[in-house]
Structure formats: structure tokens, C-alpha cells
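Students often ask why inverse folding is considered easier than folding. One informal answer: many sequences map to the same fold, so there is more than one right answer. In these notes we will look at a single instance of the problem. The structure comes first.
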């Protein structure tokens, strides 16, 4: 089966809002003059971001979800995406399952696949996602201010702990495996934080590294408390037994949101927490400078690095 047959059979679907979708030289999408476009791109590589026995549906779902997480961190609404996939060879069963997983995620988060490319080579998936937001409403990394409270959503370390178990030939629990293979982009949370949060980032490479991006962009420092990090029971038990806080502090692959808010907005955060039924944990505060200080932790962690 050639490239164009693969695209037409497995990836030629989109929402009705698209003027021209797959099948032409470019997609055509209407623009709203009162909106701004946000966009992000990520590549997932076989053996680096997922194991050889990860199901094609999970690979597809995660490939889209991690990009949508970037859109969530800006407070935007996802709209469209493109897919570039490199395959070692054409396996109809694999591609069919991949297509179904991608379609499942796209429908869940109401985004349209509008184009892309297929090539032969080592397995990799690159997704470029687009979103929209009212002009001037994007939540940036550069807005954190002295005295802001720092929050994170849900729990940290679940995906990293699952990955470490897999690397040790152990079998993670179903819930930990779900955290690794099917992260949930916090789109609704990001949208609710518009006008409330001063800064925001999605935690992809580990809390320590990603929070530091906010501090560098905002030219501020921060103090967080290691004992305030929100942990699931399996991760809490693991840390209790090993003392390895790095799995939560720097493990990565969480795709939760880390954000800062003026302390006057704390009640609003609690209201959002109840409304969305997502735990939002205060872990520290923004300071004038000095980088990131982690109270209660004297070790050194190695955050994820692409090189």
C-alpha cells in the first residue's frame, strides 16, 4: 500500500469546521479576527518515549495527548493538528489500531486531523497541534510574581515510576500504566486558569526542570516543600521504601499543570478544584530570586534531557 492510500484509508477524517482538510496541498481553516492561534509540536520516538510492546492505540493516544497538554498550559482551546509518521514498514493491523487510538483522542478533545506526511524509516510520530484563544489571554511562563503561590494538578511521579518498573522488567499496575500511556491533558483546567494564573507550564520533563523554566522566564525564584508534593499511594510507598524523591521531582511524563497565582486568588483555585474535581496542591511560593529551593530535600536529581 502506498503513502496516499495509507493516508486516505486510515487518516482522512476531520471535524466539519475545516474548510479544506486532507487531500489538497494545504488545509484551509477559517480564522476569527478576535482570536489568536497557539501552536506546539512534539516528536515521540520508539524505544525512547514508548517501548516496543506498547500498543499502537496507546502510542497514538499519547502522541496527541502530550501536544494537547501544551495547549492546555496556555489556557487555549485545541482545534486542529497535523501528523507526520515514519514507519519501518507497512503493517495493516498496526496502522489500523494506531488510527483508532488517534481518532479516539481526537474525538475526546474535539480536534481535527488536517494533514501530515507518511514516510519509511525508524518508528517516530510528530504531531503539530493548533489551538485558539482570545487575544491577549494566553498564560505565559513569564508572568510569575513575587509572593505568588505555586500549585500543581493531581499527582506527580506515576508515569516515571511505571517507566522505571518496565525498565526493571516489572509490571506496573493498571493505573500507573494508564498514567504513562494515556496522560490526560488538563485542557479544562487551563481554560479556567485564564485571568487567574500569572504563569503556567505543563510538566513534561519533570517538576524541577519545568518549574525552573517559569522562574527563568519570569526572572524570579521559588521555594517548594518536598513533603507537599502530591503523590499517589504507589509512588508514596515507593519513596517511603527507597527515599528516591527524584521520581516525583524530576521523573517527567506527568503532563500535569504547574502554575502560580496571586495569594488573593487562592479561593478561586479551590473553587476550580471543586468544579473540575481535580486535586490542586499548593507546593510553595515565588520569591525574588535565587533559583529553585526544595525544602526537605538535599539530594540531586537528573531531569529528562533530549540529548
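Output (designed amino acids):
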Amino acid at each position: 500500500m502506498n503513502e496516499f492510500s495509507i493516508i486516505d484509508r486510515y487518516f482522512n477524517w476531520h471535524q466539519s469546521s475545516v474548510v479544506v482538510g486532507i487531500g489538497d496541498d494545504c488545509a484551509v481553516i477559517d480564522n476569527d479576527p478576535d482570536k489568536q492561534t497557539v501552536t506546539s509540536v512534539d516528536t515521540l520516538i520508539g524505544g525512547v518515549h514508548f517501548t516496543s510492546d506498547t500498543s499502537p492505540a496507546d502510542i497514538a493516544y499519547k502522541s496527541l495527548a502530550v501536544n494537547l497538554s501544551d495547549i492546555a498550559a496556555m489556557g487555549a482551546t485545541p482545534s486542529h493538528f497535523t501528523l507526520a509518521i515514519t514507519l519501518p514498514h507497512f503493517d495493516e493491523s498496526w496502522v489500523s489500531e494506531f488510527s483508532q487510538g488517534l481518532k479516539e483522542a481526537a474525538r475526546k478533545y474535539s480536534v481535527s486531523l488536517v494533514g501530515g506526511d507518511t514516510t519509511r524509516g525508524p518508528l517516530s510520530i510528530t504531531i503539530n497541534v493548533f489551538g485558539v484563544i482570545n487575544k491577549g489571554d494566553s498564560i505565559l511562563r513569564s508572568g510569575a510574581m513575587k509572593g505568588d503561590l505555586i500549585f500543581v494538578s493531581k499527582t506527580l511521579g506515576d508515569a516515571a515510576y511505571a517507566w522505571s518498573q518496565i525498565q526493571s522488567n516489572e509490571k506496573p499496575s493498571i493505573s500507573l500504566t494508564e498514567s504513562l500511556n494515556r496522560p490526560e491533558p488538563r485542557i479544562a483546567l487551563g481554560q479556567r486558569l485564564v485571568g487567574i494564573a500569572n504563569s503556567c507550564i505543563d510538566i513534561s520533563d519533570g517538576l524541577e526542570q519545568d518549574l525552573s523554566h517559569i522562574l527563568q522566564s519570569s526572572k524570579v525564584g521559588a521555594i517548594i516543600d518536598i513533603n507537599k508534593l502530591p503523590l499517589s499511594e504507589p509512588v508514596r510507598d515507593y519513596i517511603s521504601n527507597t527515599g528516591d524523591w527524584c521520581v516525583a521531582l524530576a521523573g517527567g511524563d506527568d503532563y500535569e499543570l504547574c502554575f502560580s497565582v496571586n495569594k488573593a486568588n487562592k479561593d478561586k483555585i479551590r473553587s476550580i478544584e471543586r468544579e473540575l474535581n481535580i486535586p490542586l496542591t499548593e507546593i510553595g511560593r515565588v520569591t525574588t530570586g535565587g533559583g529553585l529551593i526544595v525544602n526537605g530535600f538535599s539530594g540531586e536529581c537528573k531531569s529528562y534531557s533530549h540529548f
